[in-house]
Structures are given as C-alpha cells and as structure tokens.
Amino acid sequence: MKRNGYPFAAVCGLEKAKEAVLLALVNPHAGGVLVSGEKGTGKSTLLRGARELFDAPWIEVPISVTEDRLYGSIDAEAAVKHGKRQLQPGLIDEADNGVVYLDDANLLRDDILSAILNIEEAGGYQLERDGLSERRDTKYTVLAVMAPESGTLSSSALDRFGLFVSVDSETDEEARMEIVRRVTEFEKNGDAFRAKWADETAWLAKKIADARALLPDVEVSDAMIRLTSVYTLKANVAGHRADIYLMEAARAEAALAGRKYVLPKDLEKAAEFVLPHRMRELPPEQSPEPAQQEQQEPKEQQQNQQPPENDSEELFSMPDAPEPDETDTEAHEGNPEDHREDETMANPNAGSDDRVDAADMRVKLPPVWVEPVKGKQKRKGSGKRSATRTDERQGRYVRAEIPHTKSSDIAFDATLRAAAPYQKWRESNGCALVIKEEDIRTKIREKRTGNIFLFAVDASGSMGARERMKTVKGVILKILLEAYQKRDRVGMIAFRKNQAEVLLPVTKSVDFAQKKLAAMPTGGKTPLAKGLSKAEDVLDMLYRQDPLQDPVLILITDGHATTPLENSSDAVGDAMTEAERIGKRNIPIAVIDTENGFVKLGLAKKLARKMEASYFKIDKLSEDSLLHIWRKMSG
Amino acid sequence: MKRQGTFPFTAIIGQEEMKKALVLNVVNPRLGGVLIQGEKGTAKSTAVRALADLLPPRLCIKGCKFHDDPNDKSNWCDECHEKYDNAAPEIEELPMKVVELPVSATEDRVVGTLDIEAAIKEGKRSFETGILADANRNILYVDEINLLDDHVVDVLLDSAAMGINTVEREGISYSHPARFSLVGTMNPEEGDIRPQLLDRFALSVYVAGEKDLDKRAEVIKRRLEYEDDPEACIKKWEEEQQNEVRRIQRAMKLLPQVTASNEILRTAAQISITLGVDGHRADIVLIKTAETLAAVAGHTEVTKEDLREAAHLALPHRMRRRPFEEQKLDWENVDKVIDG
C-alpha cells in the first residue's frame, strides 16, 4: 500500500534522531539506528517518514510475521501451475540495498530480531526450507524503534545496532504548540500538508543522495583511526564492533558535510550515537563477586572449586565457588544472649502489636535470581512439552511441522507448499490442488504466557523486628515492578500467628498485589510449615488449571519456625519435611533469608537446600542487573 | 438469522460521560477511540452496541473490501488505486459499523490470512481479509480488552499506530488501510491494561452504577420494557434516536470549520507540561477533543469550557505514572491553568 505519511522534515525537534537516521541512510555500514523513547514522542512518525528520503526498498517487518515470509519459501502458486520449485523471496531478501524498519523492535520475537540483525551483519544467509537450498545475499540498513516501558532488548541485540538515540518529549511550550498545530493540520488535509513540505523533503533526499555518492571517496587517516580507538577504549566497550561503527558513522558525517576526509569533530558527533548503548562502567578484568548467591548443586560439584568467570552471561548458568561462610565468623562476635532476646524471644509476645511497614525502595537486588530448572525431570505429567509451546489453537503461529499425531490445527500455507511441487503428476479431481495425507502440516504456536511468581512471605513478629519488613516489602516491590513490565502474574501467601493465608490469589493485576502488600501486617509466631503447605496447595491448583504454567516460588523467611503443623510439636522439623516435598516438584524456587543479628541459626539456608532452591541473604542483596535475571528466568 | 434490535442508545440512563465520549468518536472518526472502565453491569457493552444505530452513512467506493473513502485518495488500498487512479470510482453510501473483536480471536483472524478456497480451487495464493480490514473506517470494539492475548494486542497496536495493517505471513504479503476508532471496555478488577495500549485511546471514562434510587428504578423499568417487547420499545425511542443522529450529522458538518486559537493551543501545552504527561499525544488529543466538543455544541471556535471538558475526557489515563502509584489527577491545577 502506498503510504502518504507525515513528512520527515515536518517533525518538530528530535534533531538527534534525525541526524542519526541520515547517517544510517548515508552509510549502510554504520549499523542502522535504534531510537528509544517513551510513547507519543513521534519516533515512529519520524522513522517512517524517512522512507521518502531514500529511493530504495523499504520493508516493514510486522510483529505477526511468520518465518516463511521472513526468510522466503517455495512459491506455491508457481509450483502448482508449472510444477516448478521456485523461491518466493522473503522480506530480508526483498530488503536488499534498502531498509528494514522495525516498529516496536522489543516486541518482536527474540529469534526473529536476532536473525534480522545477524543476517544484516553477515550480508546474507543460507536458506534451507521446503526443499529449497540456496545462498541468499542481502544487505540492508535496520531502522528500529522501541518504547522501553514495554520491555528492553538484550545487550547483544543492542550491540548490533550501530547507532542509538534516546528521545524525549518537548518541554518547551512553543514547541509543543507547534507540534499540535502541524499534526492537526496534517490530519485535516494530509495532501496539502505534504505538498507544503515537499521542497524540504526533496532537499533532504538530495542531501542523502549526494552524501551517498561521496561516501566511497571519504578517507580516514591513521590519526583518525587512532582517535576512534581512543573513544572506544575510554567507553570500555565490549569487542570491536563499536570501532567499526564509529568510524563508518564518522565517514557518513564527513560525507554529509561534503568532505572527503574525516575530522575529529565527525568522530565526536558520531560517538554520541555509537557509544551510549555500549558503555560499561566496570573494568572488564574482574567479574563481580558472585558471593551473594549460592546454588544447590550435587555434592560432588560443590567441592569442585571453579574460578570465577569473566563473562557475566556465564555467571548465570555456572555453579559458582562456595561462598565463604561469613555467618560463622560473625557468630563469634557479639553476645549470643543479646541475639536471642532480640530475635527469638520477641516472637511469642509479638502477637498483640501487629504492625504495617512501608516498603523500602532503596533495596538493591542481586545479579542472580532464581536458577531455572535444568537437567532435571520436568514436573509430574508435563512430559516434554515446553512451557511456551501450546497445543491449543491459541497463540502466535510460529512455524509448521509434520504432525506427530492427528491434528486439527492445519497450517494450510505449509501444506500447500508441501503439496505444490507434485501437482503436475497428481490426478486432478476438479480442483487446482490435490492434497495427500503426507502433505499435511500443522501449526506450531507459541504463547507468551509470562511467568507466575508465587510469594510465600513470613509475616511473623520476628520479621517486623528492626524494620526488616520494610526491606522485604522493598524487595517484593522490585520484583513486582519487573512483573508489571513483563505482564507476569503474581500471587502471595502470608503466614503468621497460627495460620497461612492466601493474601492474593494469582492475578495479573500487579497493582492489586502492591496494595495487598502495602497493607500486609506483621506480628505473631511463625507457622512456617503451614505456609509451605499452603504454597503447595496453590501450586497444585495452578497445575490443575494449566499444566504448562511454570510458576516460580519465592520464599521469604528467616527460617525461625515456631508453630508446628496440627498434631505435631516439631515446628522446624515440620517445615523441613514440607520443604522437601516442595523440592520434589522441580520448579524454580528462591529462598530469601531475612535472618540477621550476630548469631545465625542458618535455618533458611537448610530449607533452601531441602528445596533445591537458589539462596539469597537479604542483607547481601546488592546492586542490580535485574534485567539479566529476568531474561534468564523468562528464557 | 435476523439481527436482533439493540437497546436504544438514547434510552440509557445517566452515564453521560460515556455517552458523550462515544458520540464524540462518531462525530470525529479520527479522534482515536475511547476506553470505558467500570464494574460489571454498568451498561458499558450495551452502550457501545447501541451506538451502531446512531452511526451515520458515509461515502464508500463500491465493492471495496475496506470501504475506502472516494475523497481520501491518500488512504486508498492498492486495488482502488489500480482501478480508479485514472477513472472515477463507483460510489455507494454505507453506514459506519461497530465491528467486534472477540477476546478469543486468533491472530490470523484479526490480521487476515491465506485464502484456502482460492488456493485449493485455483491454486492461487490470495489474501483473505480479517477483522482489521472490516474495521477500516469503522468502530472496532473489544469487550474485556484487558484480557486480550498479548500478541493480539501487539498487532492491534501496530495498525492503530499507523492506520495500516501489514501482513507478512503464511506466504502472503499484503497491506491495506486499517484506520479505526478503537473502543474498549474493561473491568479493572480483572487485570491491568498494557500502558502502551492505554495510551492509544484518545479518551477514557470511568462508569459506576447509578447511586440515585429513582434513577436505579428507572433503569430496571426501561430494561423490562425492552425485554417485554423490544420492537415497541425501539419504536418509542425512535424519535429521540433520530434527533441524536441529526445532532451528530450537524456536528460532523461543522467540525471542519472549527478552529482552536493560539491561546487555546498554549493552554493545552501548559496543561500537559503541568501534569507531566508522557509524549505529545495528550496535547494533540486535547485539542482534537475540544474541537469535536465545540462542533457538537454548535460553535466554530474552541472555548475554554470545551478545553476543560476535553481535559476530563482525555487526561485521566495519561498521567505519567510509575507502576503502583495511585493515579491522581490534580484537577485544581488544571483549572488554574485553564482560567489563567
């Protein structure tokens, strides 16, 4: 369809984004542009407007794209009519020498986004589909837009974009008025508005064309190459992509200025786009201390000391060195009696003075969160199905395959492609197409379900002590914030006094969860075993609802169980038994240990071991990279 | 099956803001839709469905699957361009429609898919249009929009943003105009709506059950009357309905002449700056809403009161909010800005 969109030149402000787009269009080797910014800033309008500045293929990859259209597949029509195996080129093929535009790049499926970026870098790909085997060469420029509030990109995807611009809305009154004036004028009479801006558009298009023509002659002196490296070293970027992008962007700057040589100011300007999304703060030689986290691994591995890894990605899947047991050393300091009085003794009589603590938002989270279940058997009865693949007819159609069982969810396009080459030889029954059973393909659908986080929170008196609940609420709130962005579902169980209750049934309304959390009182004894058994009830219910759901249990407690189950007197023993039972479920579990003070009983740690859970100490919960955690978990 | 009549729009008691917001979207199809939030049983869906009876006819190109506007060449589909770029199109008059998108709809039905019949019979690869094609130049209604599958929301956002549905799937490569007024209803207790989708709605209204005893009784009475004998009830409100249609048509005619002064534009910008809303959509929607309100009220110059009313409809869901913060709109501040 022809698009008579809002002209690029008529977009107010967004000067940096405009400059970046020009650079990318002038020099395809500059690695494309990613524009990030809050909704309603005009970033999509601007990038879509760039289409008119550049006489080349412009391919938009919609979020609903299927693989056959992206990579290309057999031309079924030609196959039926002429019995020829012929390629219907995919989008990335059609984009050769042009632009691939991604609106909401962060909503695209990860595999599709990385394919688009990887193929761009490699300049081609090997197509192996529907009996076709071909090498396809294609070179395009990626222009993309994202709104960070709906999720971010992985650092490796970010790194593949040469240029990055973050945009904001105008705060100047006059500028805002002008925006409204122009937009309403455009909406009232688009053609007239476009005509008004036609000269500007033509001027920009010429500027790009001229710069493109000049680009092959733009040379980079050795001094400028050295300066490039100075910039990238200073920014402490990973790898060498940045150097290449920076140099190419600087060449584009020079070409736009009509020069055949690169000046330091070109590099300086280009660096603004090339470096911001790659800069790292830490020097890379030391990995951050992985000590806050301890994983429960098979015994023999636990003895196995491993050196800390440099690559932070690796941190997540690698069993790290056993943490130095600081609890022991601390235990010798201070007075044990004090501790008992302060912590344990406070519990029994705390029942009367319930308190409600506010959440402490200053808490920081550790770089590692819950270890996804791996190498273990999946939960009972769930078989080999992956959590994101659905057998229902819902979800996004991802690809087609030969059915293993009888299926009603037929992928007609794939079936057609499978049947097409044989039509010439099949006996016709009046239809143009004869389909045999062996042609049938079914749809593989994928549903982004989001995770379920079930919190079991110890709300007993000991948690209220020393305002610890503030920290706990802060931690939960941080997790909820992530859940909010990822559309995860959360549920919450609180246990205190003599009972465990479902404070919040599993819901999508994270807002609601926050309200419940804010109002959660603390006080009373610790019926830890009851809390765990309640958690099991909820997990059972979730499993009955949908065996494909993958809940994550997060237990927050100091482990000081004081109330046993009915007909029992061993509070701690009961808790351990329940913990062991939950451990058998093979779901990801995290235990956050809130125990503090000088003497530590280490009960929560034991509990974690029983449950084969990841274990964290709340006072060690320090700095950041929540995103990594989440990506790893949602992976 | 004969389509059953619907409860007359004008017979709905109270819920003035909701009714107003819906009518504004009919008067100005480019306004950008409305989100209606409220508890169960507050006539949300009834009102949206009843709106169908008030929708005025508009000119369409005959036989076009997307009911293209003969006078809006820049938003024609490829077929219309091919056929009528050098020839006058045949024109027909069709009423605007309320096209419903059920929560259970699959992505392929929403965006369109491969035409199986054409494939089998003729071995041809052609495109079978989906709901978005139907929705072009119409009202797209999603009940319980907060329960819509994420990937359906994604495609909805995509076409809502650019007014074009791009299909690249199942061997099909196709794009067509998809400009629609998005109307959603939801019960906030059942889950949040994605911020991005929320932002796409020009207006938002909250509805609650009627608190007034007499009015409640009247609600029951009218409902019973309707259920007793729908035809008689529809007849009884016929005149009222006709009046409303005329009002809408008058406003539509007036709308192109409505202008907003510099002072009004400045005030709108000040409101957005004061409230710290995200992006520029708030300013734009404020002005468009105020203009439409002016047209409905029958004047050609946007007044402060139009702007005030527009603010109440267009701003509540746009406050820059961190998740979990109570969303409060400081109306006093807004009034202060408007009254200078």
Provide a descriptive summary of the structure in words.
- By secondary structure, chain A is an alpha/beta fold.
- Chain A has four domains: 8-215, Rossmann fold, CATH 3.40.50.300; 217-274; 290-379 and 450-634, Rossmann fold; 389-446, no CATH class.
- Chain A contains 24 helices and 21 strands.
- In chain A, strand 6 (124-129) and strand 7 form a beta hairpin.
- The longest helix of chain A is centred in the N-terminal third of the chain and has 25 residues, at 190-214.
- The radius of gyration of chain A is 30 Å and the shape is globular.
- Chain B is an alpha/beta fold.
- Among the domains of chain B are: 32-56 and 96-193, 3-Layer(aba) Sandwich (Rossmann fold); 256-339, Magnesium chelatase subunit I, C-Terminal domain (Helicase, Ruva Protein, domain 3, Orthogonal Bundle), CATH 1.10.8.80.
- Chain B has 15 helices and eleven strands.
- Chain B has a five-stranded parallel beta sheet.
- The mean pLDDT of chain B is 87.
- The chains are: A alpha/beta (635), B alpha/beta (340).
- Chains A and B meet through helix 3, helix 4, helix 8, helix 17 and helix 19 of A and helix 4, helix 5, helix 7, strand 8 and strand 9 of B.
